């Protein structure tokens, strides 16, 4: 009873003290509420964006009871969730010539169904022509709700209307009311509305009623033999079962006998026992569900949140205890002992922690609701509703409450150890910093780094994580010493920065935790940003470009379409950012054209660039001894070897300018300057004289190359068969060539440029195939659609290709991490500045009394902010590099093991620093913090009460 009474009094004192010091209390509440807010928003967002089984079923089948699809395999057996199915008799022959199954006969009696079928098509756009998927699906039917929803406008009705998704409209420049033509059928359609797939918001597609697209297309292909029939996808049916019955397991088993796969909402949510599932009885394969993949990241987030709350709120409680030391001293004079002093300070943590936790959860829910549309767009799917898990929300609030207590624990211990005399007189006493703690911290830091590096070399991620955390804790222990050292650097600085450094060093109990909080936030962000930047660089290195950067290639599909090259060239030159360079090329082949007669056995010739024999011309990473060599190579040595002319043919893709693997193309000197970027008059002169230009020196020996041509002709090639009937003729020619420097061996899609007259002399066939253009930038959607539109109007059969690179270099996650670290840094710096002002009011009064100008107060606040922010960011950057480097060492070990099994696989594992992120954190954030503190601090002091 006495214990309860004592704590009740302590809580009452703490509540009154919080109300009396509203500014400090609001600061503490905010520091507890903000991380709780973030974790609450993260929890609700994760739960909302992760669909439940019922939500996944709605996305698959709308408001129907099941999805029926014909697998055309004969009788099948399936699992209740329809994820697995097998033929009843694997050895039974498939009847591919018989009529398709009438799937409607497998629906339960009294059912209602609508069909879905897709077809890829070419449609006109606001810019030109684009390729997209068109779905024949009655989107206006109630069964479609949840699978397809209307955003604005109207659903299509009849055979002359369509609905489109928002991404399709944005990329094509169309809108509601626009008319688009399906070029394959020539039929026009009006876009009447915008629809979306709630589970895939990025889909670019068109929707029409059944019979609106495929039937007219099929009719035109039957009438006009030049029009290809539609390549339709398999048809699915959304089925609404009998009222009150639905689609049950017996219904599914009956449909399986006809080869129909059924996914039923009722069966998935309430599956039958295994004894009633034939496939389960026949197969004992176990597919364990993934579990716990997110547990480690979530625990890490929670642990960092707790650490930051403790580090940020702890100094606030310490300053609060010092501000209330007279009150605590009076408590001692009235008979209170150390337990009661601790209880009062801890009660402050309980009161403010409870308020902050509750406020954080409530505001977190509100923020998630307000920003829900933005989150849905970012996640790429709609929330069915905000998923609130009361247990998790209570746990998050409890974490905030407990961390409030933890933050008040150390100040409570310090306050309870003060004598009553010190408390009443306001003397703080003289306490020297521990000399053991920095030494211990340095040792722990060294051990942590060593463990992380050892874990990296061993490929053990657990050791890497443990060592990184240990190193960070060791650096935390060194922060008081580092802050004290900074105080000695200000002797040559102006007044305000000198005072800021000395104040930070003198009040390490307030400064060190704030620096540590900044360090903790920045370390995690820098670690992830460095790892992601390094992985991006690795991906960019391993990427094999399809085209040279800054070029586009116009290609024809056949001799007939090649006759339309002049119109296509004009379209490219008019609609794309062509910089003036153009090179025409011709494809070359021997015998009959493989592209035309490949359906006949031994019907086409071949053309091959023979690589000379010998060790100097072979790639060491292929053939005998490659694995043994790879086992001895480092990642850098492997990188250098794989980029050598001898090994580059193993990486390059063929087929861009020709179909043969040797990548021989017929062109003139314009190809050198436009595509190869080889500015050498000798090379141009060689081509003009009929001498080929070899880009990869590995195919040359003594300045000559060997071309092997097999002149085999098909009987279908009537023109050439009359001239060359009978057996194939093989020719081998040695040609003097101009050998380009080694760096041009990496030119994508091209090894040898052959002059036209040389090809004719060798008896090879050539045909105009396309052109290469130098462009200022990669074509946009609008430019590509305009160009394609002109080409299609001219008759089609040509296409434009461009190099898009390995992917986007800017990852939004890096920006999010940078913003997160910047917000924590600004918050911690602002807290420390506010605490410094509250804790050093007497010092500021003294400054004013001795004649310091009012601007000194503002400058002092600004530099105090800069000291905390800059110190924390620099230390956090150093701490974050430890796990990033160690994890890349883990990747390096795995890559080396893969390389030794597959010698041509790259083991290049760079460590790349994200310099834009680091610059923003190290320079931008501290500077912004200082400017904000300077701008928001009042120059003049408020009238203070007389002390004592």
Overview of the molecule:
By secondary structure, the protein is an alpha+beta fold. Helices cover 51% and strands 14% of the residues. The strands form 4 sheets. Strands 1, 4, 5, 6, 7, 8, 9, 10, 11 and 12 form a 10-stranded mixed sheet that branches. Strands 20-17-21-16-14-22-13-23 form an 8-stranded mixed sheet. It has a 3-stranded antiparallel sheet with strand order 15-18-19, with no helix packed on it. A hairpin with a 4-residue loop joins strand 4 and strand 5.
β-strand amount = 5-15%
- The shape is globular
What characterizes the major β-sheet? 10 strands, mixed
What structural class is derived from the secondary structure elements?
alpha+beta
| Mean pLDDT rating | 80
């Amino acid at each position: 009873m006495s214990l309860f009474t004592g704590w009740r009094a302590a809580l009452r004192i703490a509540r009154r003290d919080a109300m009396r010091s509203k500014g400090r209390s609001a600061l503490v509440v905010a520091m507890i509420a903000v991380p709780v807010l973030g974790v609450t928003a993260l929890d609700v967002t994760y739960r909302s964006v992760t669909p439940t089984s019922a939500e996944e079923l709605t996305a698959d089948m709308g408001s129907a009871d099941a999805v029926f699809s014909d697998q055309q395999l004969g009788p099948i057996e399936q699992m209740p969730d329809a994820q697995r199915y097998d033929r009843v008799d694997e050895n039974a022959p498939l009847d591919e010539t018989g009529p398709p199954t009438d799937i409607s006969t497998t629906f339960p009696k009294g059912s209602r169904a609508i069909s879905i079928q897709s077809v890829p098509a070419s449609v006109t756009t606001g810019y030109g022509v684009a390729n997209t998927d068109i779905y024949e699906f009655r989107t206006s039917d109630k069964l479609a709700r949840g699978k397809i929803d209307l955003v604005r406008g109207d659903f299509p009705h009849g055979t002359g209307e369509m609905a489109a998704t928002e991404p399709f409209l944005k990329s094509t420049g169309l809108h509601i009311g626009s008319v688009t033509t399906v070029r394959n059928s020539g039929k026009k359609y009006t876009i009447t509305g915008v629809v979306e797939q709630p589970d895939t918001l990025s889909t670019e597609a068109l929707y029409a009623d059944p019979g609106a697209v495929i039937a007219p297309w099929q009719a035109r292909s039957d009438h006009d033999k030049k029009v290809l029939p539609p390549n339709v996808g398999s048809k699915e049916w959304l089925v609404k079962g009998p009222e009150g019955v639905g689609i049950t397991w017996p219904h599914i088993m009956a449909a399986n006998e006809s080869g129909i796969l059924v996914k039923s909402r009722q069966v998935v949510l309430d599956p039958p026992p295994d004894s009633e599932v034939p496939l389960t009885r026949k197969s004992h394969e176990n597919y364990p569900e993934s579990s716990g993949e997110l547990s480690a990241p979530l625990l890490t987030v929670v642990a960092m949140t707790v650490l930051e709350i403790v580090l940020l709120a702890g100094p606030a409680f310490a300053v609060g205890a010092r501000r209330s030391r007279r009150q605590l001293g009076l408590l001692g004079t009235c008979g209170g002992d150390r337990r009661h002093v601790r209880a009062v300070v801890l009660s402050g943590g309980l009161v403010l922690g409870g308020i902050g936790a509750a406020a954080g959860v409530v505001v977190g829910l509100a923020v998630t609701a307000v920003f829900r549309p933005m989150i849905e767009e970012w996640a790429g799917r709609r929330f069915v509703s905000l998923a609130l898990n009361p247990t998790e929300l209570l746990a998050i609030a409890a974490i905030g409450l407990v961390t409030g207590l933890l933050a008040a624990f150390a100040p409570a211990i310090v306050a309870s150890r003060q004598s009553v005399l010190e408390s009443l007189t306001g003397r703080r006493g003289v306490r020297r910093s521990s000399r053991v703690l920095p030494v211990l911290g340095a040792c722990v830091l060294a051990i942590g780094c060593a463990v992380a590096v050892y874990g990296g070399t061993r490929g053990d991620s657990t050791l890497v994580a443990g060592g990184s955390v240990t190193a960070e804790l060791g650096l935390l222990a060194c922060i008081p010493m580092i802050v004290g050292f900074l105080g000695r650097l200000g002797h040559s600085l102006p007044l305000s920065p000198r005072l800021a450094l000395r104040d930070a060093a003198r009040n390490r109990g307030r400064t060190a935790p704030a620096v540590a909080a900044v360090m903790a936030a920045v370390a995690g962000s820098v670690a992830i940003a460095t790892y992601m930047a390094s992985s991006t660089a690795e991906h960019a290195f391993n990427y094999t470009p399809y085209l040279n950067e800054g070029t586009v290639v116009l290609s024809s599909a056949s001799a007939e379409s090649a006759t339309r090259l002049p119109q296509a060239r004009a379209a490219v030159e008019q609609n794309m950012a062509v910089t003036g360079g153009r090179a025409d090329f011709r494809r070359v082949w021997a015998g009959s054209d493989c592209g035309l007669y490949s359906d006949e056995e031994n019907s086409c010739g071949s053309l091959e660039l023979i690589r000379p024999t010998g060790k100097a011309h072979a790639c060491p990473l292929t053939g005998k001894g490659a694995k043994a060599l790879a086992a001895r190579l480092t990642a850098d040595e492997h990188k250098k070897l794989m980029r050598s002319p001898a090994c580059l043919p193993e990486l390059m893709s063929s087929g861009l300018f020709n179909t043969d693997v040797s990548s021989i193309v017929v062109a003139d000197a314009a190809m050198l300057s436009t595509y190869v970027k080889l500015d050498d008059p000798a090379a141009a002169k060689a081509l003009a004289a009929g001498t080929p230009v070899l880009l990869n020196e590995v195919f040359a020996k003594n300045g000559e190359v060997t071309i092997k041509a097999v002149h085999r002709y098909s009987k279908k090639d009537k023109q050439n068969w009359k001239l060359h009937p009978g057996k194939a003729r093989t020719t081998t020619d040695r040609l003097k060539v101009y050998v380009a420097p080694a760096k041009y061996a990496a030119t994508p899609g091209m090894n040898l440029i052959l002059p036209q007259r040389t090809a004719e002399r060798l008896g090879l066939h050539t045909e105009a195939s396309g052109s290469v253009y130098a462009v200022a930038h990669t074509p946009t959607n609008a430019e590509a659609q305009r160009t394609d539109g002109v080409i299609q109007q001219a008759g089609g059969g040509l296409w434009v290709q461009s190099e898009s690179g390995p992917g986007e270099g800017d990852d939004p996650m890096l920006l999010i991490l940078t913003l997160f670290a910047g917000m924590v840094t600004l918050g911690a710096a602002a807290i420390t500045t506010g605490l410094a002002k509250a804790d050093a009011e007497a010092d500021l009064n003294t400054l004013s009394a001795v004649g310091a100008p009012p601007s000194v107060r503002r400058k002092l606040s600004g530099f105090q902010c800069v000291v905390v922010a800059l110190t924390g960011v620099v230390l956090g950057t150093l701490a974050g590099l430890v796990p990033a480097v160690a994890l890349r060492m883990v990747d390096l070990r795995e890559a080396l093991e893969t390389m030794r099994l597959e010698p041509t696989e790259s083991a290049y594992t760079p460590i790349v620093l994200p310099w834009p992120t680091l610059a923003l954190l190290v320079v931008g954030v501290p500077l912004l913090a200082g400017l904000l503190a300077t701008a928001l601090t009042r120059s003049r002091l408020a009238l203070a009460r007389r002390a004592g």
